[in-house]
Amino acid sequence: MPRRAQVRRPMRPENVHQARLLKLLRDDGPRSRAELGDAVALSKTKVALELDRLVELGLVVGAGLAESRGGRRSSIVQLAPTLRFLAVDIGATSVDVAVTDGRLQVLEHLREPMDVRRGPMPVLDLVLDLVGKLRASGAADDVHGVGVGVPGPVSFREGVPVVPPIMPGWDHFPVRETIGQALGCPVLVDNDANIMALGELHAGTARSVHDFLFVKVGTGIGCGIVVEGSVYRGMSGSAGDIGHMSVEDDGPVCTCGRTGCLEARFGGAALARDAETAARSGRSSLLADRLAEAGALSAADVAVAAASGDPVAVDLVREGGQRLGRVLASLVSFFNPGMVVIGGGVAGLGHALLAEVRGVVYRRSLPLATGNLPIVLSELGADAGIVGGARLISDHVLSA
Amino acid sequence: MPRRAQVRRPMRPENVHQARLLKLLRDDGPRSRAELGDAVALSKTKVALELDRLVELGLVVGAGLAESRGGRRSSIVQLAPTLRFLAVDIGATSVDVAVTDGRLQVLEHLREPMDVRRGPMPVLDLVLDLVGKLRASGAADDVHGVGVGVPGPVSFREGVPVVPPIMPGWDHFPVRETIGQALGCPVLVDNDANIMALGELHAGTARSVHDFLFVKVGTGIGCGIVVEGSVYRGMSGSAGDIGHMSVEDDGPVCTCGRTGCLEARFGGAALARDAETAARSGRSSLLADRLAEAGALSAADVAVAAASGDPVAVDLVREGGQRLGRVLASLVSFFNPGMVVIGGGVAGLGHALLAEVRGVVYRRSLPLATGNLPIVLSELGADAGIVGGARLISDHVLSA
């Protein structure tokens, strides 16, 4: 088998029946033809016809015979084992690229530090480099599409970031087109919180939940809104942009240029800033030692300090959790979700953060909205953006 | 034709094709069989079959011949002219009952003052009385269903109000069952803001908008959320309950028992209370005169006083608009709607209120979310709850 970049349009399903069959095989794994027929409520002949065509298209392969259900044994089919999706997770301070199989299982995962503020060219060059490495290893031969997450608002239709506050130089940069032309396959670009929400929906804690919020607290703060199992993006694609919701009348100047934003108070960047101030002022010897050692502090340092009982760090987590909780209390009253999942780097603050957020939400939201509301930490953690990116593009590619 | 209450199950469409045809006839009016065939993308034979069946069911009738499109003239069909829906709008201080034809045009509309706090029995007795009057006039013979709005949270599935703050005595009262048993036809019960949103979607300012917010500011404050042309109700039916979102750390005690709620600051009841306080303190002679005359003040009095330039009334509107605006700014950032419609009694404050709300939202929400965002007053005004009630039940009854 030749191990070189293949530039050709991958095969796609031709009708809604084929699309449904492919998604069943993606989500449930190998199935007998009989089981698939039951699941899609099509006649035996029709299912056989569509499956045969999917085999011809190279999307499905046979996988032996099923146990007998009384009559002739039905043959098992599965997604072609060569089928691959790429997921790209562009964060504020790193780039992740991974390749998955058709069932969205991660096969290889590469991660490099990178400052997104360096602008689109160096970042996308790194992305393509990492893809090249995956291809060189043979893991990414039969790529059917790429799902890309970026930490800012995105025009989903056009595949471009739109005035992203923490991504200077990226405004309207043709991310989808650039990657699509380099790799010769379908590409979708979305806000990272939306993608992480899809990850939790596919393989994380929100698997059985149709309407939920995924709150990402990383360097920035964002929210993925899932309505009836699909990401709700709003009129211009900015739905869920809660980082710039106003939580106070003044406060620190935000990356967006205004004051009073949630993100300016409790993003990872804000937390690092407040921790450094505390370290320099001598209020926390633990944080001061860490600052002297590393030259800078991060949200992760605050998490470690809080876990070991440092009172300044504990206060930072408590105060941030209160602010986040107030915003979420409003959103819970408004949206009445079935679950709230908290993820992203600052979710590393863990149960201390969760306890604060829960306290405020359960106290300030309507009882009817909080009666059965789980507020939980992301199950996938750092992998949410990868699984979600693969899910995003596979939903697209496996549609008719 | 006998003019008495008929208790029988009305006919319903038998499949999705019939349902689509009926909704087209409801929304677009009489159409030729040829036009309907084009619209639903079914074969001529299949459309003829389904329409013939709808005629047999008494839901559709012939209405002459269309202009020729080149060949034989196609016959025109329309919804049966006897088809009727009832809409019931239970407000905090009044009850509206109306009957519409199949196209949701209001034929007769009765309104009686009634305090919802008197509890379900007297209020629903009045509702059934008013329905009786409509029936006695012959306007409501062939009723296919009833859509009911109430000013509080509703479990839509069960058709009961759930812990509604301004409706003491109504918690879990079987509203749907009571009306359904009395009238012998399908009944749906929903929160009034959801129903008013449906009204604007059907025949008001949001006709061409798929994702929007309808903000009702009456005695209480609520919000109808429309996603892809359908009301989004959330996990337990309380989505859009923004009246009890916290806007300050203390403030007046709310009907829900907590402090800091938006509604306790700027519902119609709060506005009337603040106006009476101002009148009694001698700060506004205009409001004092009106109070002496009427014995009590309402939000409508504030509107009149503000329109004639009374500075206290103008301040009340301005301050209320600011508070409402701040909440809406957050919701606009979160939900990125295509439109915000403001309705309900306090919308009578009109353009002064609108100007305040717009100012705050455009200043405090993300530019990407406000770029093309119309913030407008309800077009249907007091009729939004009636048209919406009819739309709610017709969507249900005309479904397969």
TrEMBL record, chains A, B:
Domain of life the protein comes from: Bacteria
Coiled coil feature spans: none
InterPro entries given in the database record: ATPase_NBD, ROK, ROK_cs, WH-like_DNA-bd_sf, WH_DNA-bd_sf
SUPFAM superfamilies membership: Actin-like ATPase domain (SSF53067), Winged helix' DNA-binding domain (SSF46785)
Pfam families membership: ROK (PF00480)
Family according to the record: Belongs to the ROK (NagC/XylR) family.
Protein known as: ROK family protein
Organism expressing this protein natively: Vallicoccus soli
